[in-house]
Fold this sequence. Notes:
6 copies of one chain form a homohexamer. Chain A is of the alpha/beta class and 251 residues long. Helices cover 31% and strands 21% of the residues of chain A. Chain A has 10 helices and 12 strands. Chain A has helices at 21-27, 32-41, 80-84, 90-96, 119-127, 142-145, 204-212, 217-226, 231-234, 239-250; strands at residues 53-54, 61-72, 103-107, 132-135, 138-139, 151-154, 156-157, 167-172, 176-178, 181-183, 188-192, 195-199. Chain A is elongated.
Amino acid sequence: MPPQDRANGPIRTKDIKRPPRSLIKSLEGVGSATATSELKLLGIRNAFLQGPVCMTPGVCVVGPALTLQFMPKREDVYPESEYVEPEQQLHRHVLYHTRPGDIVVVDARGDMTSGVFGDMMMTYFRGQGGLGVVIDGCIRDSAHIKQLGLGLWLRGVTPNFHTQTNIYPFAVNVPIACGGALVQPGDLIIADDDGAVVVPIQLAAKLAEAATVHVEWEQFSHERLAAGGDLRKYYPLTDAARVEYEAWKRR
Amino acid sequence: MPPQDRANGPIRTKDIKRPPRSLIKSLEGVGSATATSELKLLGIRNAFLQGPVCMTPGVCVVGPALTLQFMPKREDVYPESEYVEPEQQLHRHVLYHTRPGDIVVVDARGDMTSGVFGDMMMTYFRGQGGLGVVIDGCIRDSAHIKQLGLGLWLRGVTPNFHTQTNIYPFAVNVPIACGGALVQPGDLIIADDDGAVVVPIQLAAKLAEAATVHVEWEQFSHERLAAGGDLRKYYPLTDAARVEYEAWKRR
Amino acid sequence: MPPQDRANGPIRTKDIKRPPRSLIKSLEGVGSATATSELKLLGIRNAFLQGPVCMTPGVCVVGPALTLQFMPKREDVYPESEYVEPEQQLHRHVLYHTRPGDIVVVDARGDMTSGVFGDMMMTYFRGQGGLGVVIDGCIRDSAHIKQLGLGLWLRGVTPNFHTQTNIYPFAVNVPIACGGALVQPGDLIIADDDGAVVVPIQLAAKLAEAATVHVEWEQFSHERLAAGGDLRKYYPLTDAARVEYEAWKRR
Amino acid sequence: MPPQDRANGPIRTKDIKRPPRSLIKSLEGVGSATATSELKLLGIRNAFLQGPVCMTPGVCVVGPALTLQFMPKREDVYPESEYVEPEQQLHRHVLYHTRPGDIVVVDARGDMTSGVFGDMMMTYFRGQGGLGVVIDGCIRDSAHIKQLGLGLWLRGVTPNFHTQTNIYPFAVNVPIACGGALVQPGDLIIADDDGAVVVPIQLAAKLAEAATVHVEWEQFSHERLAAGGDLRKYYPLTDAARVEYEAWKRR
Amino acid sequence: MPPQDRANGPIRTKDIKRPPRSLIKSLEGVGSATATSELKLLGIRNAFLQGPVCMTPGVCVVGPALTLQFMPKREDVYPESEYVEPEQQLHRHVLYHTRPGDIVVVDARGDMTSGVFGDMMMTYFRGQGGLGVVIDGCIRDSAHIKQLGLGLWLRGVTPNFHTQTNIYPFAVNVPIACGGALVQPGDLIIADDDGAVVVPIQLAAKLAEAATVHVEWEQFSHERLAAGGDLRKYYPLTDAARVEYEAWKRR
Amino acid sequence: MPPQDRANGPIRTKDIKRPPRSLIKSLEGVGSATATSELKLLGIRNAFLQGPVCMTPGVCVVGPALTLQFMPKREDVYPESEYVEPEQQLHRHVLYHTRPGDIVVVDARGDMTSGVFGDMMMTYFRGQGGLGVVIDGCIRDSAHIKQLGLGLWLRGVTPNFHTQTNIYPFAVNVPIACGGALVQPGDLIIADDDGAVVVPIQLAAKLAEAATVHVEWEQFSHERLAAGGDLRKYYPLTDAARVEYEAWKRR
């Protein structure tokens, strides 16, 4: 019944289609805050994945989403035997698709007692060039995982493993809900201290374009405001401020 | 990307496989409380769909599950144009499959501001012989719908329509989560005042068998307890009580 | 500091401006479900007061909103002495403005341990012609109040009185938040089994107009669907169904 | 480790001390709303058991509390074997103490997936003269139990049995928390449509006394307010109203 | 309808009355924990703003509150045009009042998807001498804002801007609820790692006085306890300990 | 009524039985993640205390549990006078039992407005050799306490003291619920960045044994995965990888 056929031979899951490297590059300067504002103008009311919070301050990532979907555990469809047979475990399969720059996004249904990935899984993911993980749930072995250099957006951490109590991995690279937002496999994720944002792949180029309209004067305004300048004058720039700004730019 | 192909011609969604009528009949005397107890013995720790509550006291239903899955609304995949084109609306398509005795189970993600079905949809469902609806969310037009004779297990009611704010119908007759339990299309639902329970289809016959072990003496015990009898004597039956019971039975 | 001057003489609070009786009349056939749909088309994404639920099934009300706002209780601004001096209690003052057909809407901050109104207050309100009460919180003396004939939309009931624990009445006939929606004094409320909806007063005429576009054929469709008719044919009406409908109408 | 010694022979649990029947009688006219108000004056800020709601409208009970405490289930202290041995089950033992007029109060930790009592247990309780049950959790077999004539204050219902998932009965007639309030075995419970209230046994006589200060004029005021009388005149009574009242009383 | 007149000319909002600098100075040694204890003695049961947590460990602030109130967004009172006209945006206006030492307190209704302030606003606020911000909600651009040297007490962070989804700024320098506590404009805020506390301005002098009762021996006790001393002897000081303390003090 | 007799002379509370030092030593290498996995195999479905989160990253503790139970505050059983009499305060008594290596576990009922321990209490606890504290609630004076070198697993921090609002200390060294798990006095606690886990004392030796099955090859696998090795080959080890591993080990 799940998208993956488990009955006949080894499990095969679909890969995602990745965008050109140049598109991702063009979005790397765009933070999550700018992304949500511009996506609003492009018609997306809320692209924010509310729930997972940044556990790795200062890390900013942009990359395509591999997706993993959990479902409530039911013993007839997830017997213990599956747990002991590694190649049956779908949370491994999503990682098998990892290419450098990929981001794994997981619908763990907000569960706070299941650790979706542990140290070994995340070490492998990092070894394959994975950039970050966004989970509407938890990881385990967090002390070790935090040292791998990955970006982590999580609801929390737990010592429990992923099928210990309530949920089990159900599907790989299918559309999922994460943090109240729809994420399709191959959509882009922009994530930083403010949180994670989904960029629908078909809007990514438009977003990059909108965000490259260079606001040259923002640095100038920032300096002025930090020095006690008047918000009404420097943000946005008044005509009077623009004269100052032109002089500032010439220096 | 959803299971339904929307690009080419009219939408087609899969039907479910229904069990023999006799199997359902054999479960009609089994309430939800007995079902969860027996399913526990069969290895299912929790078959209860926690969240939707009974809105139609006294109504008991048993039947196969048609399933409908909602996802967070995202304007690029659910444009307004879809709303205005009835045949594009997947919540109608799940109803098109209705056969007499069917039960619709909906993963509405717990959303309390979206009315999954309104009066017209439910009237049609009833007209086709539908028995009941279990929703991890709400309906609208509830005053009218309550008069149709359907069983209703809901989180609540709302005047809003289904795609007014946060969610949209995404897939029909796929495995879903509802009330923290996994429901596969074609599983059986037993629902009454205590709530709704999923019976995995491959366990249904075993459940029916276990539940037909007739506890003849329960009515006797019930009478005795109601009359002030001692729990220790009458539930379960002691040897002394069994003698009384045999006499009671002969009368 | 509150909008009411408590220092000098008796408290005076502002009344609301009520719309012509004809406007309210024109909305009395419009239920909350139709109201939210039409308001969506008028640009209001969500007019539903999510939280208060209908405690009086079958009661439908339309009327202008008197508003009452609670604030977290702080002993320096709400001393016990205020409680013992009836004319200092603002929850009485909102009722003093009652005219026949009025509806009181209360922001009780979702508090589940404070009973905003008791039997005497509600009896007075009913005696003045009040229609109903919408509270993002609770009432007390609920057994008596349910017999008054008022419409009640509440989060729950409690034996506690309104300033017993956490909140106190702060302002009368000011804009409030109730159930996650903004309600301005004098806005209209439409409430029934599905819940309560705010109609911004400046949109009320437009809503009435939109809702009076008579859907004559809906009753016909309803009958057909209840009799097992095809949703695709009867909702909305196809050309074939329209011919049937015309014949039906002539009978 | 629990208060009951399970190691040596049959389990014995403590009974409660019941107040004189006359004390309970003197409180039977006092509803929960009056009780919380008067207890506030006696120094108890919040005697309301917030959480369990009335499932049996119109039923009012006053009686001493038998208490039952649940704890999170841990397989080493609650093995399956305990479940199959009825006399090991503590939820039975609390019922063994039932005397006519008793009320069982249960700390079920707010759990929504465990049915504390089923039909047989409640039939026995009723047969022994039990008045009502207050549970910070659920019952099962609710359709049958609602017909027994008991008062029920619950968070909800479920088909699951009491040790199916997360909790197990741990102690009988010990102080418990229920709905955020402390209940000691032998305290009095007053419960009606507004909810359940704990009356510390040592304050019960004072409460009865305070509540018997007869407010003769309240019925008069009620009539006047229902007929459109002025709140400022009739509640509390002004001197002018008192004259009317005296005349009314003479009729 | 809001306190600010938006119809006629530029918006004007009220400033607050600030206490003498000496009063604030006298409270700077008093942490939030001491403040709540002493305020309890002064009759304030709970002065803690529960919800916003400290995001800037080690920063302690004392200062007068500028207040900003959000309301649920409703499209008829907050049209898009307001967003594009900076001088119409009330969240700017509260910052215009900033004097050195001020603290902005915001009722953002607990909303987790709206960023009340971004980098530019907070840079301006810091440039004007602002000390800190307490929000029952979120900021955006958090990576930059954390470097400004402000104290931050927040429920979280988000990339969304303040009117992107559910709320909009409604009033400046009015009484607000924040974290379940009432804050009046001009009240003092004491905030540190434990959280933020409101000091009603009329109690500030009394609090300062109570807190200056010098507990000279506390440092002595602290040393003794850290070295393994007996709590019963050293906290509070016994007579025996007092002798030791006197000796310690002489050294 | 509480386990401690308060009526006659000074309060005495029971101590716990501590396991041999060697047992604790044997568990010190076992983290919380390994502990939950192995306890699952030993029949404990969920040993994780969900709720309290690690506030002291990098700190790992193993030790026996002293327990403290809070109950909802009720003024008749917890009068103000108790607060002012230190030796009546039970939260002090649990600390009196401290031996080096002990861990205090507190059921604070999830309350976010009560600070269970302050600076002086925790300094004393540390002075006696206490290792850490796990609280289903908060501490106060957190800035100071974080510098003591204790491990802290908490739901949060607050400036309020422990009996300021809703709860009061009720019993020492009794079985408690903390984070949805049962903790008996003398059980072992293993806590680190992932959270706190209860090890039933009778399972501690088995857990230690299971965990000492040395997985020598894990470090090897870790290195290979970090370097881009294939998960399918190195985790678990295939035969081919085992050859590599033997060579690696010889180096």
